[in-house]
Amino acid sequence: MTDAPSDRPVALVTGASRGLGFLIAREFADRGHDLVVCARSAEGLRPAAEELRGRGATVLEVAADVGVEAEAQQLVERAQERFGRLDVLAVNAGIIQVGPMRELTAKEFAAAMDTMFWGQVHPVLAALPLLRRSRGRVLAITSIGGKLPAPHLLPYTAAKHAAVGFAEGLRVEAARDGVSVTVAVPGLMRTGSTRNALFSGQRTAERSWFTIADSLPGLSMSAEKAARRLVGATLRGRPEITLTLPAKVGARVHALAPSTTLRVLTLVNRLLPGPVGSGGPRPGHTATPPSRWFARLTRTDRAAAARLHQHDDEVAPSGGPSGEPA
């Protein structure tokens, strides 16, 4: 049953149980929105939702896999039943799979596409009638990986390229109906997601290089700052926002000289760990405990994981995600 109409706008955020998705939901709460928060795991979503309620927002929790059309439709229906309106949709669900191509199967590519492409398409199509009514906004979280290829992230790169294409095309067409779309292209952010990223091949070595890159202040960005900028850009109706200086430079250089960037990235790939026939991806928190120097170098990553509910909604050791490690 729909509650009595409220003057407060409503934001629906997918992948909201941890990391960037949780921070995006928190930003909307702090800016006066009530919330519908979604992740695959009801148990993993609960701690994040409770923290959001503590910031004064009315919060509806919905456990759903937005890569499944029927579940995405039910998610939007639940939002309409509870609030009677929808003003913002932030599609953020994602998975991160790290490892050499020879360690991957079609299963990893399908999982990436289901989460990061169909996980945008299905909720957007379901929500558009409500967003047209409110002249609302969409925040589509893509990645710099959707603008240029990153070694050892091939399923992620392929799915994010598809997500960029969908989000950009959506921006062009939805404007006719009064719906604003912001295409978000973040670079590396300190979200603590390496704990729940999925690693194949030489897992300890893969986790090491990826976590160090994700922890360095000059290369990565505070997730809190990223969320503030993304939500601000969405509410202003900005068409696209790229975050971190390396991401901006990389995207522009690749657009101007794609052959050069492909040659450079091919050389970078040769420096990364090779395949060993490891038998499939496993989450980072199951890897060999890090050395003391590695722990000191990546302390910002561990601190972010503790703040942003990465421990509360963990990917299962089998590699099957219980939520969205974005």
Automatic annotation (TrEMBL):
<dbReference type="InterPro" id="IPR002347">
    <property type="entry name" value="SDR_fam"/>
</dbReference>
<dbReference type="Pfam" id="PF00106">
    <property type="entry name" value="adh_short"/>
</dbReference>
<dbReference type="InterPro" id="IPR036291">
    <property type="entry name" value="NAD(P)-bd_dom_sf"/>
</dbReference>
<comment type="similarity">
    <text>Belongs to the short-chain dehydrogenases/reductases (SDR) family.</text>
</comment>
<dbReference type="InterPro" id="IPR020904">
    <property type="entry name" value="Sc_DH/Rdtase_CS"/>
</dbReference>
<feature type="region of interest" description="Disordered">
    <location>
        <begin position="306"/>
        <end position="326"/>
    </location>
</feature>
<protein>
    <submittedName>
        <fullName>SDR family oxidoreductase</fullName>
    </submittedName>
</protein>
<keyword id="KW-0560">Oxidoreductase</keyword>
